[in-house]
Write a structure and sequence with these properties.
heterodimer, A: alpha/beta, Rossmann fold, 4-stranded antiparallel β-sheet, globular, B: mainly alpha, MetI-like fold, about 0% strand
């Protein structure tokens, strides 16, 4: 049995005076234990919505999600979620942030202290445990966010464009750090990204989603040894193959819009999703809480 | 940084240090300058008007001002007024902050309470004076009530803004780590809103301090405001000026205390060298 099973899930966003927007329709896939899976697609393809549902912050209209045989019905510590803007609590130190899940789950002081040392080891954050997030560089914030999500040993790590807000030069470096961190902890990962290069560098498997109802266009296994070289021929071939697929995914979305949506709504499905999320309770806002915390 | 090898840096450093000192006290320097100009204008105007009932000389007011700080009557009345302000503020805090947290957190609470609260808020604070005298009689009662009344709205409104300004992903993050509702209130809502709550406290304290003086004109026969009325009745304008300056300075000092508390309680905001107001 696969670790994560997504079974025929659908999600539609409805808004007053606007046509219903089908974000995902009958989507199914499995993720095996230890796999690093990227969800790749143009913006508006529903990848973040999917991740939000995996996190349990939003429920599918139809279909089920099972994690280790258990149905996902809300957020929980069996899934570690890393937000796009990291959502580190600015009023807590690095240590308090990292140990927050253990604190609310009433782990003993000794266990917490021990786990802290392990997590500081793998994230190379020794000496920064008493700093506040505002005092850290972008890369350090990312590492804190990842080990915070890993603290209570989740079954799976969910990453929402973890490097989306970071400039190009820095991004490659952080991808390497992330790869090392994940490899060391042997965690199963589902990551949302729109960066083809990033998905090839990090993943065992890339699921390309279409902007048309989140259809899975292709499920590509990246068969490259680690650590990966971005210069290798095989790497570049994967990148160009996936780039073509993403282009196709984007075009499918275009034609869908032309068919179903009145002219004034064409090309705005992104805003569409954003405003839906803003309207519907603070808990569904995962997708759009852009970098307010990063200020 | 070590800079032994070169001949120039030493001189350069010395100069730089002088500049640093000037920069450090630049603000104080300007404040002092503006104060001097104001005092000169005052004295000039007084010498032109030549009527100490309207505008006493600077020297006369200064004399009153400095003796006031050692006058037991004035000091005990100031103490009484401060006690009222603190009492009123505490009432406002105990009611206002939980109310603000609730209204910020729950849309239902907001929808049901906001119209009522916003209507009551529009009633001028002095319009409560007659009613508060009917309710509480003369003395501490109405003054404390009026302070609480004027302090509560800035507290509620700022607390609401604080809660609403919390990044929704903080809630999501806490929930995905297994936090209960209570954990979220304690660890996310309260600390997340704290900067705004403390701003609310500053505004509330200011509003309370302003309204207490007014309240004491009417509703009581003791306190700092009452002293002012007495000075006016006895035609001791210089003392009235001195008392007014004192009330300004005391209010300023209270605000400074709150700023210090703010920096202490939300020190995480100031770690990157950012300087707030």
């Amino acid at each position: 049995m696969a670790l994560l099973e997504v079974k025929e899930i659908s999600k539609t966003f409805t808004q007053k005076k606007k046509p219903a927007h089908i974000v995902l329709e009958n989507m199914s896939f499995n993720v095996e234990q230890g796999q690093y899976v990227s969800l790749l697609g143009p913006s508006g393809c529903g990848k973040t919505t999917l991740l939000t549902m995996l996190g349990g912050f939003m429920l599918p209209d139809a279909g089920q999600i099972y994690l280790a045989g258990k149905k996902v019905e809300g957020p929980g510590p069996d899934r570690g979620f890393v937000f796009q803007n990291y959502a580190l609590f600015p009023w807590m130190t690095v240590k308090e942030n990292i140990l927050y899940s253990l604190k609310v789950q009433n782990f003993s002081k000794k266990e917490r202290e021990q786990r802290l040392q392990e997590l500081l080891d793998i994230s190379h954050l020794h000496g920064s445990e008493n700093k506040y997030p505002i005092q850290l560089s972008g890369g350090m914030q990312q590492r804190v966010a990842v080990v915070r999500a890993l603290a209570s040993r989740p079954e799976i790590l969910l990453l929402d464009e973890p490097l989306g807000a970071i400039d190009f030069q820095m991004r490659e470096l952080l991808q390497e750090e992330l790869a090392a961190l994940v490899e060391e902890t042997k965690t199963t990962v589902v990551m949302v990204t729109h960066d083809v290069n990033e998905s090839v560098y990090l993943s065992d498997r890339v699921i390309v989603m279409s902007a048309n109802k989140g259809r899975i266009i292709q499920d590509v296994y990246i068969d490259l040894p680690r650590p990966r070289s971005r210069q290798s021929k095989a790497f570049k071939e994967y990148v160009s193959e996936l780039t073509d697929l993403v282009r196709q995914a984007f075009r499918e979305g275009e034609s869908e819009r032309r068919d179903d949506i009145p002219f004034r709504h064409r090309g705005v499905d992104n805003i569409f999703v954003a405003s839906y999320n803003r309207m519907h309770s603070k808990y569904t806002n995962v997708a759009n809480g852009r970098s307010r915390a990063a200020k | 940084m070590e800079r032994h090898g070169s001949a120039i840096p030493d001189a350069g450093n010395a100069k730089l240090n002088l500049g640093d000192i000037f920069d450090k006290y630049r603000g104080n320097f300007y404040t002092l300058f503006v104060l001097m100009v104001l005092l000169i204008i005052w004295n000039f105007a007084a010498s032109r008007i030549q009527n100490t009932l309207l505008l006493p000389y600077l020297s006369e007011t200064a004399m009153e001002f400095f003796t006031a700080w050692t006058d037991p009557v004035i000091m005990s009345n100031l103490g009484l007024t401060l006690k009222r302000v603190i009492t009123g503020f505490l009432y406002a805090y105990v009611i206002g902050v939980p109310l603000g947290l609730l209204m910020g957190y729950s849309a239902t609470a907001m929808q049901s309470l906001a119209p009522v609260m916003n209507s009551i808020r529009q009633i001028p604070i002095m319009a409560w004076v007659p009613l508060s005298i009917i309710w509480f009689g003369l003395g501490d009662g109405p003054t404390v009530f009026l302070i609480a009344m004027s302090a509560i709205f800035p507290l509620v409104i700022n607390t609401i803004a604080g809660v609403q300004g919390i990044d929704p992903n903080y809630y999501n993050a806490a929930r995905s780590m297994g936090a209960s509702k209570l954990d979220i209130v304690r660890d996310i809502v309260v600390p997340g809103a704290m900067p705004h709550i403390l701003t609310g406290c500053r505004l509330a304290m200011g509003a309370g301090w302003m309204s207490v003086i007014c309240a004491e004109f009417i509703a009581t026969s003791a306190g700092f405001g009452f002293l002012m009325v007495e000075a006016q009745v006895r035609l001791e304008t210089a003392q009235l000026y001195a008392l007014m300056i004192m009330s300004g300075l005391v209010g300023y000092a209270i605000d400074k205390v709150f700023i210090a508390v703010e920096r202490k309680m939300t020190s995480w905001r100031f770690k990157d060298g950012f300087v707030g107001s």
